[in-house]
Specification:
single chain, alpha/beta, Aspartate Aminotransferase, domain 2, Aspartate Aminotransferase, domain 1, 2 domains
Length: about 400
């Protein structure tokens, strides 16, 4: 069977994961080896050295490529290593356009690493595709998007911006970590590269760190593969195996994440101590039409993901007490695991972004980011309610 013709749930379990030829093992083995024997000098059996390729990593890469509808997947030791590989395609003097709201680690890499090596960056609110027209220059070589963004959950129109970028010969990369390929497929909407922190929903269990870049063009894939091998930021076999195990349940986990997140978001909208709730699945969401067009629908409901951003009706002290009181939600960086996490972007994940820039995009001291897990929703609601009562006692 051609797994590319199968439904998502079937691809997640079978793509790149045929039974192992020698033993018939149903689960892809962990090929825990650094090197591979060669029958003669320069002749190998498909693998030479595990930085370059490893059968366990290959299985994960093939599976992710199938899930994103790409021709090739490249896996890395972290999401930021995947980001680094994409930026390494550029040369000094090249210009990058990016969303003004993005993961703090991505901004740090752009601003503190690549800028020193001669790349230039422009940031804008690309919810309006016309902003791209104002920022593009003859030196622009890459458009870097997140949608939904981290942490403000802004959406960008991937199809419209990809068309604009391609008219200028500009590559489009979309960080699809929040949505996952189950909820959104950037390559089908015109993007050239889908990037993931596989640490998050794809792995799904907070037990491994990784990243991926999936492409729809074989030549582009070869260029990134060269960087992958040359820079060596690849995941080990065991991390690849853990991530591949997580992928198998991605569809069922995402549906539960979305179900819980919507219920929590609706409840928080009615809470007197919560000033604003931002969640793509809500009717109150400012970009609900784009969410419905770009993200997966289930029974007429937009699956908005597992992330919620809230702004408390208080100050930093209230946020600190709230975050320190939760128990079912764990105060920790990261997201996308089966367990619920909560954090304070201004102090934690986005501290590398200058305060004035954080304020400009809406990251205030009373803003909190929730990664809603797959626990029973009533327990999560009770935990948040208790913490909010303690914060405003």
């Amino acid at each position: 069977m051609n797994w590319n013709d199968a439904k998502f749930e079937t691809k997640a379990i079978h793509a790149g994961q045929d039974p192992e030829a020698k033993t018939g093992a149903v689960v892809v083995p962990i090929f825990q080896t650094s090197t591979f024997a060669q029958p003669a000098p320069g002749e190998h059996l498909g693998h030479e050295y595990s930085r370059t390729s490893n059968p366990t990593r290959d299985a994960l890469q093939d599976c992710l490529a199938a899930l994103e509808g790409g021709v090739q997947g490249l896996c890395f030791s972290s999401g930021l290593a995947a980001t680094h590989a994409v930026l390494a395609l550029l040369s000094a003097g090249d210009h990058v356009i990016a969303m003004d709201d993005m993961y703090g680690g991505t901004f740090r890499q752009f601003d503190k690493v690549w800028r020193r090596h001669g790349l230039t960056f422009s940031y804008g609110d690309l919810r309006d595709p016309g902003v791209f027209d104002a920022l593009v220059t003859p030196q622009t070589k890459l458009l870097w998007l997140e949608t939904p963004t981290n942490p403000m959950l802004k959406l960008v129109d991937i199809a419209a911006l990809s068309a604009k970028a391609h008219a200028h010969g500009v590559l489009v990369a979309v960080d699809n970590t929040f949505a996952t390929p189950y909820l959104q497929q950037p390559l089908a909407l015109g993007a050239d590269i889908a990037v993931h922190s596989t640490t998050k929903y794809i792995g799904g269990h907070s037990d491994t760190v990784g990243g991926a870049a999936i492409v729809r063009d074989a030549d582009l894939g070869a260029r990134i593969a060269f960087v992958q091998n040359a820079n060596g930021g690849t995941p080990g076999p065991f991390d690849s195996w853990l991530t591949l195990r997580g992928v198998k349940t991605l569809a069922v986990r995402m549906e539960r994440h979305c179900q819980n997140a919507l219920a929590i978001a609706l409840w928080l909208e009615q809470h007197p101590r919560v000033k604003q709730v931002i969640y793509p699945g809500l009717h109150s969401f400012a970009q609900k039409e784009l969410a419905a067009r770009q993200m997966r629908q289930l029974n007429g409901q937009t699956l908005g993901g597992g992330m919620i951003t809230i702004i408390l009706d208080g100050e930093l002290a209230h946020a600190r007490t709230f975050l320190s009181t939760v128990r079912a939600f764990t105060l920790a960086e990261s997201l996308g695991g089966v367990e619920s996490l909560i954090e304070h972007p201004a102090i934690m994940t986005h501290a590398s972004i200058p305060p004035e820039q954080r304020r400009a995009i809406g990251i205030s001291d009373s803003l909190c980011r929730l990664s809603v897990g797959i626990e029973h929703v009533s327990d999560l609601q009770a935990d948040l309610d208790n913490a909010l009562k303690a914060a405003f006692a």
